[in-house]
Write a structure and sequence with these properties.
five-stranded mixed β-sheet; four-stranded antiparallel β-sheet; 11 helices; binds calcium ion
């Protein structure tokens, strides 16, 4: 080989080496990549990018091709509780979570399991989860995967192996804090909030260093009950703006609530972090704040500096919140032209039923319009930014039957904004609720603390009345024009408990549903273009990604969440089935096996009786049990107590309710709140409901047997 040849071959080898891009380290997400994803098809963060629009620019699957969408692969999980997560796709790997905060990494092309991680949350922690033991997903950053566990831990995993890198307890474990929301990462800090405002906690947002889990800053959403500073980023603004908006002592026992359990977004140009804040504890302001004051920063949107947690501005959607009207719902950033002017806006459809458009630099209110049925307020005063409350809605002297319910006109189910149509696709919920002041309320540590008497929302015995209540409820997919402030089209769902949304540059809107259908609609007019039967309920939001030129659409299926737990009578009567991740592509020919349906067990109540006081049991049941087992023991999602074997003897019932025999499955002992005699009174009440249900079933069977045969 002569010298020239050698040089040439060396140069050629160097060129070749230069062409071979080094394989990226797994999970190598950083600020530049997240910024670039605003215009490419990656899905790197919970709401896809920092703007949380849930709009993908991918176009391979569009209004013309979507009819050819078929299953590419699926993965079945080991839990049949609610699935609320949005998977992330980073460098060919899908990262998702299931109920009980478990994390999975799967090959995004084939579904092959790369690793899984179980934080081994104590089952009894299910007691503190108002709204199922769900988790909405992970954050990925610089080779690590971050998950907030139900028990309040923030855990960093190695993105390549799933091995724990660090773990930090973000909450006081003596209090009923939970985490269900997805962390976000901004400027090398992983941000995590918490939940628990139905029980009695003080909400806050924390920022931890991604490398070692050290706390960088914390921002409390309510003043310190002991009247002293926390040594936190929130001290100054709480003293200046919030402390004077709280009255009485109720909130000092409960912590006041204000848990930021879901929404976050970030604007890198303005360098502002936005966070949505939850309801007050107790719900009822009469008991929380001597029926006085705005109670900052409950039910507010806050803008903070991500480096320090320093307060920049806030907007309170529901001053003096008294109805579980959280402002934790998705925060979406977009550029809109309003009255001829380009505006950098922040949009939110919180539980209270008004769609808010704010200037995200200043917090200035640009519009607030009802996007669903709203009776608690007649509008929002644009001068003051405050809602105009309808008379009697604070249920001070008599009950107030109003819309929305605590389920919210929109809940955590993600909405999506499509910059091409200019529409926000919102999964809305129309549900009434009777707010009744619980005149006997007193704080009970660790229990539900609402100050609302749930007896009033027991189901009516009268069938016509029950049907009338049901007729008032519905779920809708609403295509909302945030500039014209009106709906462009709607798709009505038979059940109110709704599902998350995705929209794409292919002119599509994807959404699942309670009855298990996963569908694609035309983003322009709502026409259904494609659907797939998942054979399970869907509440999570779909996502989409591209690999090797192929576009995929993924969705977590599995029913659950607050609606399924507490309103089973108004939702599909379905057995609890294992969660699945379904992934679709054009021409996909895979099939998912049919679910094995669990047998409906009947119990023999012959000779079963209780010396308990059923009437007392009725009251105790609705105070302690109904949020998970449904009003009037109607539960089917969490065990239907009317069909439970433990009902047949006092000993069996006591072993679960008082002795905690089922604690590992989420049913912790109620001995803190109930005596053995109370438990027996509840058993006596549930027995009457069980006998009633058996009688109704028998009557239906008799009617069927005596009906003339149809030809
Ligand atoms: Ca709440």
């Amino acid at each position: 080989m002569n010298t020239t040849k050698l040089i040439l071959s060396l140069a050629f080898a160097a060129i070749l080496a230069g062409c071979q891009k080094p394989a990226p380290a797994p999970g190598a997400v950083d600020a530049a990549r997240l910024q670039a994803a605003e215009t490419n098809g990656e899905w790197l963060s919970y709401g896809r990018t920092y703007s949380e629009q849930r709009f993908s620019p991918l176009t391979k699957i569009d209004t013309k091709t979507v009819g050819d969408l078929g299953l590419a692969w699926h993965h079945e999980f080991d839990t049949d509780r609610g699935q609320e997560a949005t998977p992330l796709m980073v460098d060919g790997v899908l990262y998702t979570t299931t109920a009980w905060s478990k994390v999975y990494a799967l090959d995004a092309r084939t579904g092959e399991l790369k690793w899984s991680y179980d934080p081994k949350v104590d089952g009894s922690k299910g007691f503190d989860a108002c709204c199922d033991v769900v988790n909405r997903g992970v954050a990925v950053w610089n080779g690590k995967v971050f998950v907030g566990a139900l028990d309040g831990r923030l855990i960093a995993l190695d993105a390549a192996t799933g091995k724990e890198v660090w773990s930090v307890q973000t909450t006081d474990t003596s209090k009923p804090y939970t985490i269900t929301g997805a962390p976000r990462v901004v400027k090398g800090k992983v941000l995590i909030g918490n939940g628990g405002a139905e029980y009695g906690v003080r909400g806050y947002l924390s920022a931890y260093n991604v490398d070692d889990g050290k706390l960088v800053w914390r921002f409390y959403m309510t003043p310190n009950p002991e009247g002293k500073p926390d040594g936190a980023a929130s001290d100054k603004v709480l003293a200046e703006k919030a402390a004077g908006t709280w009255f009485g002592d109720g909130w000092k026992k409960s912590g006041g609530g204000g848990t930021p359990w879901d929404a976050m977004a970030y604007d890198p140009a303005l360098d502002l972090l936005y966070v949505g804040v939850g309801n007050g504890t107790p719900w009822n302001r009469i008991d929380r704040s001597a029926n006085n004051g705005d109670n900052l920063f409950v039910s507010s949107i806050l803008a903070l500096k991500p480096d320090t947690g320093e307060y920049v501005w806030h907007y309170q959607t529901t001053p003096g919140e008294s109805w579980d009207y959280t402002a934790t719902q998705q925060i979406t950033l977009a550029d809109l032209t309003i009255e001829g002017k380009p505006r950098k806006v922040l949009m939110q459809a919180p539980k209270n039923g008004f769609f808010y458009v704010l200037d995200r630099a200043t917090g200035e209110l640009l519009s607030a319009t009802p996007y669903s049925q709203v009776t608690w307020a007649t509008g929002v005063d644009m001068k003051t930014g405050r809602p105009i409350e309808a008379p009697g809605v604070r249920y001070e002297s008599k009950p107030s039957l109003q819309f929305p319910a605590p389920f919210g006109a929109h809940n955590w189910h993600p909405m999506a904004f499509n910059p091409q149509t200019g529409l926000v696709y919102i999964p809305t919920q129309q549900v009434p609720f009777a707010y009744v002041n619980d005149g006997k309320y007193s704080y009970r540590h660790g229990s539900w603390n609402t100050g609302v008497d749930f007896l009033a929302n027991a189901l009516p015995d009268d069938k016509a009345q029950l049907a009338a209540v049901k007729a008032m409820m519905k779920g809708e997919l609403v295509a909302w024009d945030p500039v014209a402030k009106k709906a462009r089209w709607k798709v009505e769902h038979p059940y109110f408990w709704n599902a998350g949304v995705l929209t794409t540059a292919g002119g599509l809107v994807f959404q699942g549903s309670a009855e298990g259908q996963f569908a694609a609609y035309d983003a322009a007019d709502g026409k259904k273009l494609w659907s797939y039967k998942t054979e399970n309920g869907v509440i999570a939001a779909p996502m989409t990604y591209e690999l090797d030129g192929e576009q995929y659409v993924a969705i977590m299926v599995g029913y659950g969440g607050a609606g399924a737990l507490s309103s089973p009578s108004f939702l599909p009567d379905r057995p609890r089935l294992p969660g699945r991740l379904l992934v679709f592509k054009l021409g996909g020919k895979a099939t998912a096996p049919a679910y094995e349906l669990p047998e409906k067990i009947d119990i023999d109540l012959t000779g079963v009786s209780s010396p308990g006081d059923a009437q007392h049991g009725f009251a105790l049941y609705h105070q302690n049990c109904q949020v998970c087992h449904g009003p009037n023991a109607s539960g089917a999602y969490l065990p239907d107590l009317k069909r439970s074997q433990m009902l047949t003897t006092a000993e069996a019932f006591k072993s679960v309710v008082i002795d905690g025999a089922s604690a590992s499955r989420g049913m912790a002992s109620f001995s803190r709140f109930l005596s053995p005699a109370d438990a027996e009174d509840i058993r006596a009440y549930v027995l009457t409901e069980a006998r009633k249900a058996k009688g109704q079933a028998q009557a239906r069977a008799n009617a069927k047997a005596s009906a003339p045969a149809r030809g």
